[in-house]
Amino acid sequence: QVQLVESGGDSVQQGGSLRLSCAASRRTFSLYTMTWFRQAPGKEREFVATISRTGDITDLTDSVKGRFTISRDNAKNTVYLQMNSLKPEDTAVYYCAAKTNYYKNEYSYWGQGTQVTVSS
Predict the structure, then answer these.
(1) Is the pLDDT of residue 27 over 80?
(2) Measured distance CA(23)–CA(49) in Å, rounded
(3) First to last CA, the chain
(4) In 3D, which of 17, 33, 48 has the Cα closest to residue 113?
(5) Which percentage of the chain shows pLDDT scores above 70?
(6) Cβ distance 21 to 33 under 8 Å?
(7) pLDDT in tens, 40-88
């Protein structure tokens, strides 16, 4: 069992920055591809960014490319989402999730989420 705990969510103004963190409870963190999702009120959960086990492969949804960066520190069992130039449409609960296969959408573990609110 792996527990994922997100942190770093806050209320910021448009154009601001936040860094989200997702800490894993086990040293086997490096075996998992890590992904950030978000869910805005009344909307479906959507993919934001993903990073491979070693961090050499990343992918981001088009709406955040050039503004968000995903990274990980396997020594700290933590994945990060650096969010710059935030927009009101980035407002959502952000979740991290872990899976064993980068190319399959089968997630084994989920965090509880952290709220990001961007005001105009």
Answers:
(1) no
(2) 16
(3) 40
(4) 48
(5) 100
(6) no
(7) 999 999 999 999 999 999 999 999 999 999 999 999 999 999 999 999 9
Residue where the block lists tokens 């969510």: 9
Q: What tokens does 11 get?
A: 């209320």
- For tokens 């969010």, name the residue: 83
To the nearest 10°, report the CA torsion of 86, 23, 34, 75.
110
Work out the percent of the chain whose per-residue pLDDT is above 90: 92
**What DSSP string describes 15-57?**
T--EEEEEEESSGGGGGSEEEEEEE-TTS--EEEEEE-TTSS-
